Amino acid sequence: MGAKAIVQEFYKSDVLLEADKVNALLHPEVVLEWHSTKGFLKLNKSQIVDLSNEMSKAYVRSKSRISHILSEGHTVSVRYSHYVKTIENPREEMLLAHFMVIWEIKDDKLYRGYQMSQL
Q1: Cβ of 78: how many Cβ atoms within 10 Å?
Q2: CA–CA separation, 54 and 19 (whole Å)
């Protein structure tokens, strides 16, 4: 699977709510550096999987609407908006945030991520 396809698989609907699928797409030494409106986070594999587990407790649906995706070699840049449906209100889609991320792929897994998000 090419680098772009690996990243696209990660952002398919509901994958972010399925920790086992997230885990399978992550390199054992993955690091995600995330600049959010709440500050800087540096997450390793177990922390990313834990985040997926936490999200699955609050949301019944997750959808990433990709507006741009560019690939060059083992690097993929993605611009997307992340929408969710909460357990309390599963009929209403809610914008979680806008994201820009650059992923480096190693051994056909997500290896290094550099992400910014805005509410």
Answers
A1: 23
A2: 9
Cβ burial, residue 75 (10 Å; 0-12/13-18/19+): middle
Q: What is the tens place of the pLDDT at every residue in 26-43? A: 999 999 999 998 899 999
Q: Mean per-residue pLDDT for 60-80?
A: 97
β-sheet bridge partners, residue 105: 110
- Is residue 1's pLDDT more than 90? no
Element (H, E) at 18: none
Cα–Cα distance, 67 to 77 (Å, whole number):
11
Q: pTM, whole model, 2 decimals?
A: 0.92
Strand partners, 40: 35
- The type of residue at 88 is E
| 111: amino acid identity, one letter | Y
| 92 SS3 class | coil
Distance CA 81, CA 72 (A): 22
